[in-house]
Amino acid sequence: MTHGHTCTVCHEPIPDQGIVCHACWDRTVAALASLGALMADLDITITGQGRMPFGSSGSGGVPYDQKAAGLRDTIRAQLVGWCLLLHEDHHMPLPNDTIVDMAHAVALSDLRMHEAAGEAVAEITSWPAAIRTAVDWPAERSVVRVWRCPQGGEGWQCEGWLHVHHPTEGTPYVSCHACGARWETLEQMDELRAVIVSQRASARLLTAIFGRADQVRRAG
Ligand SMILES: [Zn+2]
Ligand SMILES: [Zn+2]
């Protein structure tokens, strides 16, 4: 049992009876420790969507709140599962029924020694990335069409649409696919917001850029 004993996750040798090694368990504890802050972000995503100015207008639809809520429910259920397992098999006292309390209890537990530890490491360490993906806006880190392009001049008015781009790397920017105009800095975006006088368009632009209801409210 002790001979040639290796981690079920990374297959490194383990000096004790653990099912997973200390390095893998450390990653798990770090994921559990980050859960409180990440869940707070996720809650903002879930509750904030309902207050978006165009959320009920039927323009495009924003399915992400349900998705984020589903993720929260899944993580909570999985966390409850690990607590119950540790309670039954390792006599761990049941913690309070909050994400933070349960995560804290699991982090301090001897789950590393449990036969299901490999499964626990895989599951728990997947949570932070899943939450970060869910709180990103837009969901696909792509392009959101927001409003008519305001560019124009003597005798012409651009017929294009403004798009907010969220590159995978770097900061968001706004551009018009028709005339090629581009707004990159916060100052430029603010100028753009001043040009598109409609409050709804302005709010929609900010939401597409920042994706947070609080930013929209601040823009009033
Ligand atoms: Zn390992
Ligand atoms: Zn244009």
Description:
- It is elongated, with a radius of gyration of 24 Å.
- The strands form two sheets. The protein has a four-stranded antiparallel beta sheet with strand order 1-4-5-6.
- Residues 49-64 and 212-220 have low confidence and may be disordered.
- It has two domains: 22-135, no CATH class; 143-219, no CATH class.
- The chain is built from seven helices and six strands, in the order ααααββββββααα.
- 27% of the residues are buried.
- With 220 residues, it is of the alpha+beta class.
- Strand 5 and strand 6 form a beta hairpin.
- The site of one zinc ion has 8 residues, from helix 1.
- The site of one zinc ion (ZN) has 8 residues, from helix 1.
Topology:
Layout: H1 22-48, H2 64-90, H3 99-108, H4 117-135, E1 143-148, E2 152-153, E3 156-157, E4 161-165, E5 173-176, E6 182-183, H5 186-195, H6 199-210, H7 213-219
Antiparallel strand pairs: 1-4, 2-3, 4-5, 5-6
Helix pairs in contact: 1-2, 1-3, 1-4, 2-3, 2-4, 6-7
